[in-house]
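Budget justification aside, the reviewers requested a transparent look at the raw inputs and outputs of the sequence design task funded under Objective 1. We therefore reproduce one unedited record. The lines immediately below are the structure tokens for a 74-residue chain.
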């Protein structure tokens, strides 16, 4: 990869090949289980999504509605 800075070209850069993601001297940390917060955003948005979908279907063309209306007129 060519490297330029302030109009001057520097030696070509090479991508860094990382063999480990942390320093060797850094102590290993114990993974602590997370405490449940009681919040579930999926469940919280589920009702809102269902209402939004129902509203969008209510305002759209429904062949089932047309058939019911046609049978009501007979």
């Amino acid at each position: 990869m060519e490297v330029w800075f302030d109009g001057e070209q520097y030696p070509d850069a090479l991508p860094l090949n990382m063999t480990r993601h942390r320093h060797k001297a850094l102590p290993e940390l114990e993974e602590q289980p997370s405490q449940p917060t009681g919040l579930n955003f999926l469940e919280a948005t589920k009702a809102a999504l269902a209402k939004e979908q129902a509203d969008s279907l209510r305002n759209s063309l429904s062949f089932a509605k047309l058939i019911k209306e046609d049978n009501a007129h007979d």
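The chain has two helices and two strands. The longest helix spans residues 41-58. Computational costs for records of this kind are itemized in the attached budget.
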